[in-house]
Amino acid sequence: MTPSWDDLRVFLAVARQGSLSAAGTTLGLDPATAGRRVGRLEAALGTVLFLKSPQGYALTEAGERLMPHAAEAEQAMACAEDAVRGQGDRLAGAVRIGAPDGCANFLLPRVVTEIVAAHPALEVQVVALPRVFNLNRREADMAIGVSAPTAGRLTVQKIVDYRLVLAASRGFLAKAGPIRRLEDLRGQRLVGYIPEMIFDKELDYLGRLGVDRPQIASNSAAVQYQMVRAGAGLAVTHDFVLPGEPDLQWVLPEQFALDRSFFLIRHADDARVRRLARFAELLVAGMRREMARVREALTEASGSVDAGEGDRTGHAGEEPAV
Question: Which domain of life does this protein belong to (predicted)?
Fold first, then answer.
């Protein structure tokens, strides 16, 4: 019996995810169906591909030997899908992006909307999670990261720079008292990441403010943002959230700002898939346009404050807040 592509597809998902249930979720199959597909493939090849244990499914030696050939078949099918669906410059099919939740919540919505408007047959899935994505397990077609990986068969492209800045709601600052220098943050309520759940070294920044643990914490940048909007305290947040939230004020702009970058991370083999390569181009260009818009908005806001709105935190004679 000749192995079918459908069975190889399930084999790859189980090998990457380590369980039938996780593979089934990825492929839209129930675990029992995924198990039957694996059994059918093993019968066709006349060998056992997985060893089952309480920890999940692990590849046998035969399974390990099959992996590169199955991955090659996967790439061939992706290229064939590109050829069949070819509509000139129009893209079609599904693309899944993994992104940190701050980027996914505040930067990607406008970018993805513009791409889909230009390519109506394209299905874009944005998976927003506060962790690093594993592209080798095909958790996503591509991922946006806050640092560049140094291992694995991956291609890495710098997308755009951004800044992490200190911000709080105007209501909170009205009650907090003057904040003229970093030392004035002592005794103020800070919002930040749960220290044990920081997933990237680039997000471990509270030490620069002289703080070991924030009083209010979340593993999600979006939750931290909502806490700050509610007046919970000060937080280090992305500069690109400020133009869309007039009640948030940039605090100590001359004394604290961290330069950071977003990187587009892709599996090296996907360079041959035209649909993914073209989508990556559109994504990078869109994010750069969006950040240029943010920069312009921040510059305009700074100019309006300089023109005479006054320093809302009460430090006369210092650089006004944005």
Answer: Bacteria
* CATH code, domain with 254: 3.40.190.10
pLDDT in tens, 89-98: 678 888 889 9
- Alpha carbons 193 and 205: distance in angstroms, whole number: 9
For the entire predicted model, the pTM comes to: 0.70
Cα 7 to Cα 13, 43, 183, distances in angstroms = 10, 11, 62
Query: Strand, helix or coil at 168?
Result: strand
In this structure, which amino acid lies at residue 307? A
Strand partners, 98: 127, 143
Other CB atoms within 10 Å distance of the CB of residue 70: 19
Residue 168 lies in a domain: yes
Collapsing DSSP to helix, strand or coil, 123 comes out as strand
Segments forming the whole domain that contains residue 193: 161-259
The tens digit of pLDDT for each residue in 52-62 reads 888 889 999 99
Alpha-carbon gap, residue 178 to 315, rounded angstroms? 7
H/E run at residue 303 = helix 274-304
Read off the pLDDT band of 131 (50, 70, 90). Answer: low
